Here is the input.
Amino acid sequence: MTSTLRHISFRRLGTSEVHQRFLEDDRDLGGFLGMRARSVAELVRRAPTGAGRLLPRDLLVKALRAYAQKHGAPPEVLASAEALLDPNVHVVVTGQQPGLLGGPLFTFHKVATAIRLCRELNAQPGGPRVVPLFWNHSDDHDLDEANRLFLVNQQQEVQRFRLDLQRTSEPLRGIGIGREMEKVLAELDPLLPQTEFRDRVLALCKPRHPDETLGDQQARLLFEAFGRHGLLVIEPRDLPPEAFEPLTKWWAKSNDIREKVKQTCDDLADVGVDVTLDPSTTMMFQLAGGHREPLADGEEAGRAQDLSPGVLLRPLWQDACLPTIAFVVGPGELAYLCAVAPLYRLLGVPMPVFVPRASMTLVEPSLQRLLTRFSLDLPDLDQGPEKLAEKLLQSDDGNDVEDALDELQAKVRASLDGLTPKLTALDASMLSALDRARTKALEEIERLQQKVRNARQNREGTGIKQLRRLCNSLRPRNRPQERVLGPIAYLNSFGPGLADALIDAADPFRIEHGVLEL
Here is the structure.
C-alpha cells in the first residue's frame, strides 16, 4: 500500500496549551516535564537505562508471555517478551483504557509511534535495545467514555454505536460485553463495504465468549494489527502480585503526595499553565464487590492486590513495574503529567522521557480528490458543510454562464433580425431560410442553457453531500478525526497495510500534525 504524508502546523489546527508549549520547547514547562527529546541521541542521553525496577524481570516476562498466549498473539510478541529477560533490553510504553472496537484512532497512533521509536532506538549503534508495550488500562471504570464507536454512515453523517449496558463504578475488566457486542456488529455490518479484508475484520470483532471484556477485545485488535511488529500488551490485573506492593507504600504517603501535587499546580499557574487536573482528584481506588470504590486520603486500605491507582499515580505505577525509558503520550496526558511528573522523584520511580504521540488524519483517495476539487484543507473543514456549501455556491460560475448565454441569445436574435430588410431587398425568397436559421440557433442556445442549469443544480445537490462527507470523515463534530472515529473502517479498507503505513508516518520527533493520504 502506497501513501503520501504531509504536515500542518498545530497553530492552524489547534491543540492543548501544554502540548503546544511542550512541542515548542518551552523551558518553563520543561522544568516539570523535562525538555522534549528532539532526536534519538538526545533521548538516549536522558533515558533511565540503568535504573532498577520493583518487579523482577522473570516475573514480568512470565506475565507478558501468559497474556500474549491467552489472546493468540503471534510469535513476534513472544520474542519481545523473552527479550526482556536481558537487563539491557528496555520498554517504550504507551497505553489507554480499552474502548469499543479499538476506541478512537489515536490509540493506534500511540502504538504506531511507540513501534517507530523502538525501530529508531534499535537502529542506534551502541544504544539501548527496546521493545514496545501497550498498557491496556482495564482498571478504569468510565464505561461511558469507553462505550462509544463512531463511523460515517451512508448518509455521510457521524453515527454513534454503543453497547446496551448500564453499569456504575465497575472496572471495565469486570464487564462482560459478548452478548451486546453481537447486536452492535449487526448494526455495523451495512456500513462496512465489501473488501478483501472485510470477513477477517468482522471475524476479529466477533466476541469469543459471552464474558469477553473490552480489554480482551482491545488486546485482540492490537495483536492483530501490530503483533508482527512485536507489540506487547498487558492489563494491570494480569501482573504478578509483586507488582501491587508499591501501592500500599505509596498510600501510606498520601498526604505528602497530595501536598506535592497542590504545590506543583501552584507552580504551574505561576508560569501561565492552566492545569486541567483537579489536584484533589481521587488518588487511590479499592476493588471491592466487583466495584472500584474511591478511597479518601488517609482511609485504611485492604490488601495491596485490591488497590487501583487513580490518574495521579497510574503512570508512576506503570513505570515502577516496567523497565520504561520512554513513554509515548497524547496531548491530554501531557496536560496532567506536568502536574504529576514531580511525583517520580518523590516516590523514587525512574522518570522516562515523555514523547508526544504522532497526531494524524487519515485521508482516503476519494477524499483527497474532493479536497483538491474544492480547494480546501483540514482547517477549512471546521466551518462545517453548510457554510462551505454556501461559499461554494457564491463562487459558482453556473449563474455567470447562464447570464452570458442569455446575452448571446439576445445578440443572435437582434443580429439575424437586422438582416431581414437587407435580404428582402436582395431576394425575399431567402426570408424563410433566415427564419429557420434563427429558430435553430436559438434552440441550440436554449438547449445549452438547460444543460448548464442542470449541471448547476446537480452541483448544488451533490456538493453539499460531498462536503458533508469531507467534514464528517476528516473533522467529525469539528474535532480531530483521531479523537472521534475508530480504526475498524480503515482496517476494512486497507487491512494489514494500515499498521505499516501508520508506523512509517509516526515520526516521534515531528512536531506538526500529519495528513496521511492512503
